[in-house]
Each structure stands twice: as structure tokens, then as C-alpha cells.
Write a structure and sequence with these properties.
three-stranded antiparallel sheet; 3 helices; 60s Ribosomal Protein L30, Chain: A; four-stranded mixed sheet; elongated; alpha+beta; single chain; Immunoglobulin-like
């Protein structure tokens, strides 16, 4: 049976600009000439992983987006596969491609784009009610354990408070819509509390920071996709007094 080329682009990314952002991009391709490649087989679940390293390490953990093209998939097969960036760090990530059932993929390629925005607080923005989203605050899955990748971002908040001694803030925690409402409220509160503990450890008075967990009640975007849910899981701070 002759192979027929089929193209399946699962994500098209249009990049405009990111203020104060560190960015990187690249491409990838691998096929059955690579040791351990099993996506051209049929039956069951097959996984192929490829390590991608950034040429220059990021200053904080970036977000990674992937566009994928399936090449030379066998004719008359159902194309069932997923592609994701996992184990993302400042140095790179693991590209994981999974296929199922009778899907046969002879080659797979595409592009990746990574970016990490830096927190910047301009003097003219420090007005009561102004909210700043912290893009680089991370926790263990389903826990309130702060990860080391969060420290740089929270250090910037601590520095801001040191330089603006009269400012008081509310640290707020937010979740996606997965899980029970009560659990999400408690988790978001614990995560806001954990961020406060770290900032206070940098010499900021406790009474200048209040915390509030909002659970899933204030989403930034739809929870219908993995990307949307990831955006909704976040920590923010709002100026209460200046």
C-alpha cells in the first residue's frame, strides 16, 4: 500500500510582541531512523521522547508552544496522537509524542516557541486597585509547595515592596475548574499563603501583605483547553494602599 502524505497542524502560533520577555524558537524532526522510534508501528500506545535544549538558558521557567506536522502517515489509518512539552525548565524541555491504536506515523516534525515574561512594575501603575499577574510562580501538582523556579519572580515583588515602603498588597491564588469548589478554594488560599511566607522571609513586614484564595471564581480565560486551564492557575497581587 502506497503511503500518502497527510499534514495535521495542531497549533498555529502568531507571535506579536512580549514586553520585557525572553524568547527562543526552533524546529525538530525525527523518524523511524531514530533509535527507539515506534510511531510507525500499529497496536497499543507508543511514546517517543526527544530532548530539546535552549541555546541560551532562560532567566525563569518559560512557557512552551508547539506546532506539529505529521509526515507520511500510512494510508487509511486513523491519526490519533498527542504532542506536548513536558519537564520544562530554564534549560530546555522534553518533547513527548504519543500515538494510539492503528496509527502509523513515519515521521514527525514541527516548530517550538518559548517565552518567559519578566515582571515589571512601573511607578505610574502603582495605584490602588491595580493588579499584577505573576507569570513565573510555580507549585508542585495539586500542592502548595513553592518550586524554586518561582523565587526570581517573588524576589521582584519583595524588591518592589522594599522600594515602596508604604505599599500594602493582597496576594491572591487562583485555580482552574478541575476539582471540587471547596478543594480549589483551600488550595488557592494555601498557595497565596506560601507566596507570602517567601516574600516575608525577604524582610517584608507581614502586615503589609494579605492573602486570599479565589479558587476557580475568577478565570482569565476559558477552562475548555489545557492552555486555558494553565493560564487560570496563577498568583496575582493587587495594590491595596500606596
Amino acid at each position: 500500500m502506497l503511503n500518502k502524505i497527510k499534514y495535521f497542524i495542531v497549533l498555529t502560533l502568531f507571535v506579536t510582541s512580549f514586553s520585557l520577555a525572553q524568547m527562543a524558537s526552533g524546529d525538530f524532526f525525527f523518524d523511524k531512523s531514530v533509535s527507539g522510534y515506534t510511531l510507525d508501528k500499529n497496536g497499543g500506545e507508543r511514546v517517543v521522547e526527544k530532548e530539546v535544549n535552549f541555546s541560551v538558558p532562560f532567566e525563569s521557567k518559560p512557557q512552551v508552544y508547539i506546532s506539529v506536522t505529521v509526515v507520511d502517515a500510512a494510508n487509511k489509518t486513523k491519526i490519533r496522537y498527542s504532542a506536548e512539552a513536558k519537564a520544562v525548565s530554564r534549560d530546555g524541555f522534553i518533547l513527548k509524542v504519543t500515538s494510539w491504536g492503528d496509527t502509523q506515523i513515519n515521521g514527525i516534525g514541527g516548530n517550538w516557541f518559548a517565552h518567559a515574561e519578566k515582571l515589571e512594575i512601573k511607578k505610574e501603575e502603582v495605584a490602588v486597585g491595580t493588579t499584577f499577574q505573576l507569570n513565573n510562580v510555580y507549585f508542585d501538582f495539586n500542592k502548595a509547595t513553592l518550586l524554586a523556579d518561582s523565587y526570581d519572580e517573588l524576589d521582584r515583588v519583595a524588591k518592589f515592596l522594599q522600594e515602596n515602603a508604604k505599599v500594602e498588597i493582597e496576594l491572591s491564588g487562583h485555580t482552574d475548574n478541575v476539582g471540587a469548589d471547596k478543594y480549589n478554594l483551600e488550595l488557592s488560599q494555601k498557595r497565596a499563603d506560601a507566596a507570602k511566607v517567601y516574600i516575608v522571609s525577604k524582610g517584608i513586614a507581614e502586615n503589609r501583605i494579605t492573602t486570599k484564595g479565589y479558587g476557580k471564581t475568577k478565570p482569565l480565560t476559558s477552562n475548555a483547553t489545557d492552555a486555558g486551564r494553565e493560564q487560570n492557575r496563577r498568583v496575582e497581587f493587587t495594590i491595596l494602599k500606596n
